[in-house]
Amino acid sequence: MKQRFLYTITIFLVLTALFLFRNKQKNILPEYQTLLYVEQIMAEQPDSALYILEHLPNPTKLTGEAQALYALLLTQARYKNYIPVTNDSLIRIAENYYLQHPDSLHKAWTFFYAAQIYRDAGLPRKALAYFQKAEQVSKHLENNYFKTLLFGVWGDFLLPESTNNQCILKYKQSLHYAELTLDTTRQISILLNLSWGYVLEKNYIEAERVQQQALQLAQLSGNKQKEANSLQALSVTYQNKKQLLAALDAINQSLQLNQNPGNLYPLWFIKGDIFIDLHRYDSARYYLAKDIRYSTLGEKAAHHDIWAKYHEKTGNYKEAAYHLRKYAELTDSLHTEDMKNNLMELQKQYDSATIKNENNQLQAQQQKLYIYIVSIIFISLAGGFIALFFYFRKQRAVNELLQSKDNFTAQLRKQLQDKTLALQDMQESIQMHENILQQHSGNEQQMREQILHTSRVIKKIKQLDDMNQKEKTHSFAPLSDEELRNLSETMNICFNYFTDRLKEKYPELTEADINLCNLIRLGIPQTNILYLMNTNKTALKKRKTRMKREKMHLDESISFDDFLLAF
After folding, report:
1. What is the DSSP string of 36-52?
2. Do 512 and 544 contact (CB within 8 A), yes or no?
3. Which pLDDT tens digit goes with each residue over 235-282?
4. DSSP readout, 103-136?
5. CA torsion sign, 99 to 104 to 110 to 112?
6. What's the pTM value of the predicted model, to 2 decimals?
């Protein structure tokens, strides 16, 4: 009866859960499939992707992964269609979700676009932090397309920040992954950006090399616009290298190839600047006048800067001073206006984000309330089932525990007796081995004394003890090389490979050093060592000091002779 009741409760809980979540899953599934399709076409058809996302029905009802993916894709589509993203409310939704899930690819894309949003908002430190997060996540990815974009945009971010070395490093990483994807067009763009990094470093040799590489790729691929861009970059490098005719030739080729009329203005500007350096002022004035860009503060500042240079070269210092003054004013205004725009933009972003966050919080609270109600029902029913289950299991466990307690105690008593007997046997065995070792040690000492007593070289050394000073000086011959080798062999046999251990531990010791160590280990007096080694007291002392400090690196407080006797 009890088992039937438990089965009934279990079936009821399962059916209730299916009923509650069935309609919700049906509503999310079609939208999620649409989002997956948008993700597939994003790279090649960003305009279509944006259209689908903007016309997705009821996007505010999306939750969980579908909501995070929608926020990420909409941000991505707007950037790819050059639509400014004015706040971080969307990307924060994606970030909050993917931070708690192991989806590394979407997490990396989220950090990547968050970095761009904070870059555009004038928050460089925050942008840099998100670039770094994206790099950390992407280390475990095999998506070379993503890594190409990440390091390329990161390099663009660092280019104006006076961190040219870091910018060049990022461009090189981006170029590496672009080469793996075989994307020639992107390789050319990255090479040109890399060359600007070298130009800012005034490394014109590297800049020219990279620009020539970009030009060759553009010519091989037949991309006329990229070829024109490469020639434009080359003209700037040639001008900086004072190769003015080469710069003029490159800008003329770029003008012929350029397919975008809007790109002609900077080309005329560059050509006019080259003519100023060539002292062809009429031609310079003609081309500078063709550049009519004068709408933004940046364009106005560049306009006055180049005209100041022109008038200074032509001797019209009054006009030059006027343009320099206007350039300085515009530079200050540009900085001030940028700061004001940033503050106003940040305030707008904050207000918009606050409203959206409040709406999201309200929606999240409604979803939580729904989940709480379902959870309370589920927990209440499951609680009764679990309580009954554990009550019966606890009763069985108590009975089994009481039944096995006596058996376990008897087993412990038996194991204790067995271990006591084993310990006694082990103690007897240890005592027997100690007796054997003591006997062996005595035999070893006798053998060593016998070897030392019978060794010819040892006998010769011992003869010095019976000689007077005159006999030592005139009659005793120092040890020969053969005798020294025999001495080393004897030391190895009698003193546990004394010579070999010295060589192994202190490889800087020479054979003569080893021979001296052998004599000290034998306990030969210093006066006898002087005759055996054919040296004097001062030289011997210096030698021992050099061996101790330079070759064996022993502490000053250690006695050299005592160390060898204990070695």
Report:
1. HHHHHHTTT-HHHHHHH
2. no
3. 888 888 888 888 888 888 888 887 666 667 777 778 778 888 888 888
4. -HHHHHHHHHHHHHHHHHTT-HHHHHHHHHHHHH
5. positive
6. 0.52
Per-residue pLDDT tens digits for 339-390: 444 433 433 443 454 445 555 666 667 677 768 787 788 787 777 778 777 7
Token reading at 315: 């001797």
Within 139-223, where are the H helices?
144-158, 164-181, 184-200, 204-221
Cα 39 to Cα 115, 147, 164, 529: the distances in Å are 20, 17, 34, 89
Mean pLDDT of 47-59: 87
Residues 6+ apart with CB under 8 A from 92: 114, 353
Q: Helices then strands (H, E): number in the chain?
A: 24, 0
Mean pLDDT computed over every residue of the chain: 79
The amino acid present at 90, given as its one-letter code, is: L
Strand, helix or coil for residue 316 = coil
CB-side neighbour CA atoms (13 Å) of 199: 20
CA 393 to chain centre: 53
Interatomic CA distance for residues 235 and 243, integer angstroms: 9
Confidence of residue 546 (pLDDT cuts 50, 70, 90): very high
Longest dimension (CA), the chain: 119
- Could you tell me if 159 and 190 are in contact, meaning their C-beta atoms sit under 8 angstroms apart? no
Q: Which one-letter DSSP state was computed for residue 476?
A: P
Total residue length of the chain: 567
Q: Which residues of 470-487 are buried (b: 16+ CB within 10 A; e: fewer)?
A: eeeeeeeeebeeebbebb
Quick one: how far is CA 215 from the chain centroid? Answer: 33
Residue burial 19-37, b: 16+ Cβ < 10 Å; e: rest: eeeeeeeeebeebbebbee
Cα torsion 365, 367, 369, 371: sign: negative
pLDDT in tens, 503-536: 898 999 999 889 889 889 888 888 888 888 888 8
The rounded percent of the chain whose pLDDT value lies above 90 is 4
Tokens at 71, concatenated: 């926020």
- Give residue 512's Cα distance to chain centre: 52
Give CA 440 to chain center in angstroms: 60
